[in-house]
Amino acid sequence: MKERLYEILNEEKAHEIIPFLKELTTEERKNLVPTIKKLDREISKIVMTKNSYHTAGSADQHAIIDIASFVCMDQKHYGKNYWSLFRNKEQTGKILEWGCPDWFSDFINDSIDAEFTAFNYQDILGWAEKGYVQPRPELLGYHLSLQPYDLEKSPETLETHFWYLCEFPSKSLPFKREWLPLVQKLIAENKIERKRFLRECLLAANRNFNKNVTGWFMDVFNILKPTDDELIMFQDELMAGLASVQSKAVNTMLAHLKKIVPAPAFKIGEFSHFVPNLLSSEVKTVVAASLTVTEKIFQKKKTGTENLAIALSAAFVSKDESIQTKTAKIIQKYIPASENMKEALSHYADNILANVKPLLAEYIEDKQLELDAVKTEKLELISEESQVKEPASFEDLMFFLPQAIENPGTYYYDLALGGLVRFADDADAQSVKLFEPVFQKACKTIAKWEVHHFNVLLCNLIINYGLSLLERFPVQLKNLEKIYKKTREDEATREAYSTYHKKLEPIQDIFAGGVAMEPFKHIAVYVFDKIISADRVPLLSTVTHEPCWVSPEALVERLEVYQTENIIPDDLDMQLALQRCSLERTSEVLKLVDKKLQGEYKDLLLFFFNENAAPKGKFEHPSWWMTAGITRHPKKVFKEFKNFGYDDIPEEFLTGVYDWKTIDSKKNSYYPVELNISIPKYHLKKRAHPLFMEYFIAEQKNFSEIPSFMWSFPNALGNVFAKIIKECLFYSGIAEVYERNLVLNTAQALHQMKKPLDAMGYLFLGTIFLDGDKVIRGTAAEIWLEHVSHKVMDNVRLGEVIGIHEKLEWAPVKRFTDLVQHQMLNVSKDHNLALEELLTHILLQMETPVTNLKKILDIYHEVLALNQSEADKNLKEKLNNWKENSSLKKICNLLLKK
């Protein structure tokens, strides 16, 4: 039986597969399934050629396996193959005639979840007629929506199935363009009942369809132009549609409800129930349309509007001045200042803008909102709360390593390396049993196509360590060999691809992910050598405090161990430790340095920890001294270092300060306004003592691990920010997921660090305030709030960055103004004062009026009112010029009066 299948496949006798399968019993077909699956894997293997690739099997061989799979397998094993077999409809029909599987009906009904199928609505009708399929309404509606033709071929199509289409349309595709004129024609010919279809269109608002399908039903409803009588008839459906999650549906309902407000049958009470949610919507068009309908009700109806009046107060949830002003005017004009109305508005009093309150003088007490001042806490980079918990034993390490694999990046990675140095040699016959799941996880992770660079190093290190343990504990770790062999086999299948880099070599031979990763690979090799030689002298660069800091005390204590053991530290490990060292309270550690260290260690740290000290002593390791100088004083040139040979490194890389400008690219309509940052080219130099930072600045490629490097240069982040800005933030309209993730990860890392910003930090923060991603903008606001609370935010510098961008309209102003209204306004007195300073310096950069400048000026006016301040005197001339613009005249005059 198996031999016959092999023969048919190898000789490509596709015409013989069906007769062969007909001869088999049910049991024989079932027994053939493992063979079919094995052959399928063999013919599906990818074969690489010089210019392309193809599968190992021919078209006939794939057809043979497709037929055999369908006939012999059950639904679970056959899977969701809605394409291959059904390409040949005639052949499929013949198979179904003599061997329709009992699962076929369920299989076809499940096809509504498929991305594509090779069968259609007419095929399903044919199968249903022959009894192969008992189609569910969902199946018929879904497939009919993809086929706007032959609707009158079967009487049940328009009588029944068309209404299934309304209830169960395609989930994955918007309606085809032919449907709209076809529906209009069928309604005109009375082949589709107009009123029933109009009702179905309205019901679509709450059927959880995707945005395109819901929008299609709303468009058809509008195009069919329902009469007022029809709208009154469907009033309940229109009201229900106000609860839709789709703003287009809600706006459609509001537009039609507005038409029937004058009708005596209009249900004011029911509409009132929906008003609070409508006015709380984040979609401004929904709020504005709701206010328009509400105002029209007050104009037309003199009674029965009490509940509607109370509900109207919910509009003050919005901090949009135009919304609040319109609401206040409706209240002022139509609603008496009753106790109930005053009570309703009192709940929103704190949210009503200072400029709107005068309109509501009869309804609310006009008292200044008293905000608390922020209790300033000193910003501490390292504290008892942020101290890391390191593995304390071999057993701890075994539980920690899987976490390190699951959380790629330098934090867990560094603690894992530190733990391996300390406890790798502690394995015994009992505890080593804990290592097998760790080894298995490392193998499973490294076997993937795309592996985080830090995971490549860590998993390789774990695997090579495991192979060394296998020699010591062959009985306890007997399964490691089998796991490793399987991983090697998986990797061997990928070696044919030129882009694949082997990951199961000795650690010194693997590709770690480019030039920037070389220092980490070097340290990983150093760690592996320490593991093999049972050298427990600690790494210098292992973090002591979250997220990336090495405490100065820990650095002194670790160097004392090296001094006692008479061991020279690894050059790159030493540099990384200096780069990560917290410099906020180093003066307190100078006595410890003087007491415990000698020679170059002592001289180096006395210079590094004393902000005003000059470098003194023997410069035996120039890379250490240079790293200390750059980290402590990035903008200072030390004459003592002039002979170190690093003068060929461009100044920007040493200082972390880059030239940048926002330019109007008039010739390039795709990128109309760009943020340009100048980063010099740099190639790694061959030198005896390369700097750790040289590997990062020499990296020419963009790579996803860039945010992780913030943990390696926490005192000097300029080079990291410059790379992210150049690659991901040159244009505000970038929408690619890869770039978005890089920027978000960088922003979140900056938020975790809680460190005062430098020049590039302000450029990065100011730019992401205008980013297209809402989460990124929200993170920027959180950074601002926290830095203002700690009194370490320079709002002048931040305002200049945002203003320089926006004077050329690098991004829509609305992104920034929405963020201010929802997250930054009225947090505290201090934050309002900081916001005033920020807005002032944004406006000072502006020249001619930009789109939505009025929105910034409105917020500025509100902040001045809250702070009881006046517009900055340097802005007066600009305001006088801008008031010539008709849309800005009113707000400019208001600001000039303050």
From TrEMBL:
Residue ranges annotated for the DUF7825 domain, each copy included: 656-897
UniProt xrefs under InterPro entries: DUF6493 (IPR045472), DUF7824 (IPR056726), DUF7825 (IPR056727)
Domain DUF6493 span(s) in chain numbering: 2-285
DUF7824 domain boundaries: 384-650
Protein name: Uncharacterized protein
Species of the source: Chryseobacterium angstadtii
